[in-house]
Design brief:
elongated, mainly alpha, 9 helices, coiled coil, TPR repeat, single chain
Amino acid sequence: MKIFPFLFACLSFSSCPYHKLLIQQTASLDTVKVTLRKMERERKKESTELKADIETRLERIEEELREIQAKLEDLYQREGRVLKPTPETVAQPDTTFLSGEELYNQSHLDFTRGEYDLAIQGFRNYLRKFPNTELSDNAQYWIGECFYAKGEYETAIEELKKVEENYPEGNKVPSALYKIGLIYLKMGKKREGETYLRRVIKSFPNSPEASQAKERLKE
């Protein structure tokens, strides 16, 4: 039973090799723990700094966008117009000195901005001044698209039909017929819609609209 005094002696004197090994291992573990804690603090610090940097940059970008928006609004106001006007306050730009192409492009730009009433007025003004140009059927087509975008489907169909009626040789005829078919389908009038889609396929077999019509008829 002399093992206990021996163990006591080993634990009591640093000269015991086992005691030295235990101390070394403990010290190593402590060093690792300190290192890990330091790394964890640095990681959190870096994460916080990165997040703060991102937030700062986003705030700067948002501020720049607000400045750009303000400049655009000022520009439109200088032209006698405002962004996204309501139908009751649609601005009337002076188109007296615009060429046909300029008037058409301005009207199409209004359409892309969602200013449908203004675009309709512009396209109709174009047709009054330039009723028989290469862009006349396009102007008539976009009038129909404007009414479609406004949700006025019956009026859109009426305007789109005028493309074929007034410009039977125009390049927008297949687009107009295809659009009419889609509107009828959207309205739940399947028979009328499919009739127009088949007309596109039959009359304009090599057009992109014919390919699209075939796909829609498969659905």
